[in-house]
Design brief:
Layout (H helix, E strand, L loop, with lengths): L8 H11 L3 E3 H6 L5 H8 L3 E5 L2 E4 L7 H8 L4 E2 L1 H7 L11 E5 L5 H4 L4 E5 L8 E5 L5 E5 L1 H10 L6 H13 L5 H10 L3 H11 L1
Parallel strand pairs: 5-6
Antiparallel strand pairs: 1-3, 2-3, 4-5, 7-8
Length: 204
């Protein structure tokens, strides 16, 4: 993120918020050596409001980037499965709830009772195919790439709506950016190589 070093501290924070459609993280202050007292100053004047721990937004912002805010709060999560299908443009459906992966052993009382779809993944493959990508609002979040997402929905097929899964596979088969070598490499590590190959042989 490029921030003009000649700006005052508050103007730097305003520039950061502008680049993120109104969102600001406490980690941004650390990155630019800005004391946290400036959050209090801007909060007292009504310029910003607290969304969740470590996440603030401009009071003038009417549309919150929920994906970005969520992952800023729960930093161990990676958007996957149906949410990753949406971010990768492999589905025409907007997810009704978030689907994300966390490392095996991760625990959060709130997330466990939230109604979100949580997938626990062994740590040796947790980061496989994880990339940084833009939300519809233009903010960066961590999510699974095309090939990992396809492997995930096949691997967790009993928990994925069959119409969503079949449509995603068809979208992938036609996708100009698909990489079959990468897909089969991921599938082998995730132990779904045979079934992924069977699905794709029908469509390609």
């Amino acid at each position: 993120m490029n921030v003009n070093s000649k700006l005052s501290r508050i103007d730097k924070l305003r520039q950061i918020m502008k680049s993120r459609q109104g969102l600001l993280l406490t980690s941004d202050l650390a990155n630019f050596n800005i004391p946290r007292t400036y959050l209090s100053i801007m909060g007292q004047t009504g310029e910003i409001e607290r969304v969740s721990r470590g996440v603030y937004r401009s009071a003038a912002t009417f549309i919150e980037d929920e994906l970005f805010s969520f992952q800023s709060k729960y930093r161990s999560t990676i958007f996957s499965h149906e949410t990753a299908l949406y971010l990768n443009n492999l589905t025409d459906r907007t997810p009704l709830t978030y689907s994300f992966s966390v490392p095996t052993g991760y625990h959060s009382h709130f997330l466990n009772s939230s109604g979100y779809k949580i997938f626990y993944v062994n740590r040796d493959v947790f980061e496989l195919g994880v990339i940084s990508m833009n939300t519809p609002h233009g903010n960066k979040v961590r999510a699974t790439d095309l090939e990992r997402t396809i492997c995930d929905i096949v691997r967790s097929r009993s928990q994925i709506d069959i119409q969503v899964r079949n449509a995603a596979l068809k979208h992938y088969a036609k996708h100009k950016g698909r990489n079959l070598d990468r897909l089969y490499t991921y599938a082998k590590r995730l132990r779904v190589q045979t079934i992924v190959r069977e699905y794709l042989e029908i469509l390609l």
